[in-house]
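Next comes one such specimen:
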Amino acid sequence: MSALRILVPVKRVIDYAVKPRVNKAQTGVETNVKHSMNPFDELSVEESVRIREKKSAPGGVEDICVVSAGPPKAQDVLRTAMAMGADRAIHVETREGEGDLEPLGVAKLLARVAAEQRSNLVILGKQSIDDDAHQTGQMLAGLLGWPQATQASRVAFGPGADEVRVTREVDGGVETLRAKLPMVITTDLRLNEPRYASLPNIMKAKKKPLEKKTLADFGLSPERRLKVLKVTEPPARQGGGKVEDVDGLISKLKELGAI
């Protein structure tokens, strides 16, 4: 098996424990809150590091590179990923106020990064918890012409040369897919339990290389195909009512036009 050069995209999102609030202009949510790494991306970083630690890939792991596109503060999640065990990072800096790249834009960027870094395995979260688009991994595989395995709950290697087996949960059971490198894998919550970055590793991460780039370096621009018209809170749920017996229930359902 070829030595693995793993590319792990990560995204800075509003922390999963924070309840998002719509801003006054109703153009999005308030962003002046705590941010952290997208939880699904934490799984991707952890799995990449475990593949190296457990020596589960016969050819070994040559390099683990994390990449993120976002404002200067996105460097925080890259440093966290390196503290978890990634070797180096690439920060594709975007200007404040430009907004997040759309899934297709991210996929185009990652395709060019993968080619430049000579990656043969991309492991990324199945979705980000801010827009929940669940599209980037599939688009990336399509642009690269690589096989893909989505929503992985287990990743194994062999027995054939450059062969990867991915188990994923489906309705009523599990499904195992087999493909050859290079390929794209998206991660699901049952894959692993991400580690906490220890203080010594956080200090070491400060010395690991972090390369700064721009979209222009990859021949791309922040083109937007979608326009947000309005963002509002979901309507408050109305309380239910009580009925005395089955006849009362039938009468109420008839009133509501349900039967």
